[in-house]
Amino acid sequence: MNAANDQALQVGAPSAPRTARERARAEITAEILNAARGYLATDGAPALSLRAIARDLGMASSALYRYFSSRDELLTRLIIDAYDSLGAAAEAGEATADRDDLAARLAAVCAAVRAWALAHPNEYALIYGSPVPGYVAPADTVRPASRVTALVLRIIVEAALAGRIPDPDTPDAEAQPVAAAVAPIRSYLPPGVPAPLVQRALMVWTNLFGVVSFELYGQLHGVVGEEPGDREAFFAACIQHWIHLTGIT
Length: 249
Hints:
Layout: H1 3-8, H2 20-42, H3 50-57, H4 61-64, H5 71-95, H6 102-119, H7 121-128, H8 142-145, H9 147-161, H10 172-181, H11 183-186, H12 195-216, H13 228-246
Helix pairs in contact: 2-3, 5-6, 5-7, 6-9, 6-12, 6-13, 9-12, 12-13
């Protein structure tokens, strides 16, 4: 993958505040976000209230509204932060694997996603749990939400370019339906990525988050053993299946 495409698949970190006023605003914003995350843990996203947060922080409601104009704006910031935190964890995990071991890199992404979800269950529930009634996520949540998917896709594309995935082309009778099915996400990706590779990345992505969600929300109770070693063994077997699914050799 060339440098332009690689850059297009990455999300840059915001620059640090430079002036004293910017730093003070960043500190108060962080306090508001931390208080909001506390409400996610105790009351859930639907009960999030700017007035309650202002009261807990000893701020006037009017002062807090200078930082977030509405509950939905605060929710959007929490969602973007959660997606970026998850994406950063996946990227950090992937970076620890040998660059030439593409299967190990994909496995590291999957393991990092699960570890982040187990360590941040409330933030995970915010982005992958039940929708918040009345809230519609704006378009600026899409790119942060795509970080893990883009990372999986990058690994698959690198494997294909290195000749380590069989020809991704599908028979003509199947090519058009696949291309149409993955058209929405392709608008956020560099041009020229074959639809079958996008399809494989999406299949890994949906399988990965499905298994993580089942574990986090208790759907594996009575199905997979409760001991950590049982869950880890099951998840490791899932990863090997997903690597086989991609076709990476």
